Structures are given as C-alpha cells and as structure tokens.
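Recall the central idea of this unit: under ordinary conditions, the amino acid sequence of a chain determines the structure it adopts. In this exercise we apply that idea directly, starting from the sequence alone.
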Amino acid sequence: MQSNARKRELILAVETSCDETSAAVVENGTTILSNVISSQIETHKKFGGVVPEIASRKHVETITRILEEAVREAGVELRDVGAVAVTQGPGLVGSLLVGVIAAKSLAYALGVPLIGVHHIAGHIYANALVQPLEYPLTALVVSGGHTELVQVEREGAFRIIGRTRDDAVGEAYDKVARAMGLPYPGGPHVDKLAQQADEEIELPRAWLEEDSYDFSFSGIKSAVLAQVNQAKMKGDVVNKAGLSLGFQRSAIDVLVTKAMRAVREHGSRQLLLCGGVAANQGLRKALAEACGQAGVPLAVPPLSLCTDNAAMIAAAGYLKWKRGEYAALDMKAEPLFSLEDWSVSEG
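Accordingly, the structure predicted from this sequence is:
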C-alpha cells in the first residue's frame, strides 16, 4: 500500500526545448529529488548562438544518460514513478522531438500517464518549487525567446496581457553583447559590466501606447549599435561598461514599470519573476526595490531554476496530473504552443 502511495506522488520530467538536456524527479509537485541538467553552451559558443541541428543531435547523445542519472540521484526506481511529464512546446522542433519521444517511450513502458507541459508554464511554476503561490498573481517572463506579462487568476489558468513585439529581452541582451564583442551567451557579461560601470550612456525607453503592457527592444538594440558604430568611425574605444549600464537600465526600467502597473491594475497578490533572464542581478534588485515600496511579495527562483530545467516541467505537469488531464501517446511536439490553451481546468 505504501508503494502505491509513493508511486502516485512522483513525476519523472524531461526538458529538451532548446540547448539544455534535463531530467528530474519531483515529489508532490514541489519537492525536488533530482534535477540533472546538461548544458550545450560550450558547443554553441563558437557559433555565437544555438544551432538547432546540433542541439537536437546533442539531445539524442545525452538523453538516456541524463534520465538514468536523474533516477539514480533521486534514490528511486523507475517502477516508483507515477507519471512522465515532458516539454511539449514551444521550442526548437528537433530538440522538442527528442524529449517527447523519450517521454512517450518511458510512459508506455512503465504503464503510467504522459503529461505534455508548456515550457513557459514550467518557468512560472518553478517558483512553486521554493514557496507557496498566492492568486491572483502576475508573472513577468523574461528569457531569450520570450518576454511576456502573464496574469494567473487561479492555479494553472494563464492569460497573456503583454508580450514583446520584436526581440525578446534575452535576445536583445545577446545581440547587444555581440555588437560589443562580448562572448556568448551575452546576457551575464552585459549584466556584470553594468555593475562595474562608472558612468551611464543613456539610451531611450520604448513605452509604446500609454495603456499597453507590450514591450519592444529593437529600438534600444539599434541605439546601442549606433553608439558602437560611431565610436568605431571616430577611432574611439567603445565604452562597453557605460553602454551596458545604459542598455540594462533602459530595459529594466520598462520591464519593472509595466510589471508593477499590471500588479496594481489587476489586484495581484504576488509578482513572479520567471525565465533565464531572471538570473540578471540588475533586474532582481530593481524588482525587489519596486515590490518593497509597493508592499507586494516578489517570488524569484534560485539561479539553478532560472535556466531551462526539468524540475520546473514536473512542477507545472503536477497541475495536470492532479486533474487527470493526460496526453495521448500520439502527442506531437508543438514548437508554437499556446500558453493560454494549455491552461488547466477549474477544480
């Protein structure tokens, strides 16, 4: 009897949406027993960005080993697993397919439910792995592929109220870093330089329409490129630290201002920071200060849960598992998956 109870509590999750191969075992949707991540950064660094064909090949090479490590580190047996969750989308279709096929095979072999998970739902519910969530809440999703404001009125019910109209903020960070000759991935290098700057090269803010929650980062990216090109034409040395600080303050100012307005106008009880750019120290500090002044609780995942990982997929998958909302074994990878459509049913 005890074995069956344990089986119902454990989710084995798989994440292969981009360039991290990850597997995790999570209990009750909140307790991480293992969370193994294999990064491909060193592989893609020479190309200045992720090469989809290489990413999917690397997933094929490592997925079996990562799954074995996750189960071993969790101290469980495969027969203890009650469900298998996997990132269904969005992401690179070749990378997604590797994880989906592996998860389908495991679910079929173990005779347990298969759960398809939205990648952004995973980033949002990474916060549930470290503290209880209070609804309604607002989530600021910031990553290389996404910049969105998501309103979550109840558990697992998502409504996108703002999104980027061009570059995602993480993408803009990488492009700005590349223009300044900084290594890939550029975000952490820009963040570090901004902390060290003695002066700021001020850059414009893209506020868009007065009532809009949308974002635009192409203009600020172009402003940085113009500064770099002007310095080169004059034979001057580019002030990388000053430019990094100007770019970071411009991007963060808009992100924080719109997120706090969303919290205020929607009566949210909590603000969540989610996604890879959630590791940015400047953004963390600015949001903490704004939330402190407004008296709004801020939830920020630890750095280990900011980047793509399978534990967050298990946390989101648990929402579906509790409601018996399983996927069929003919489930397909969805590179353009809708977060709102993925929302769980009430009850």
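Residues 1-7 have pLDDT under 50 and may be disordered.
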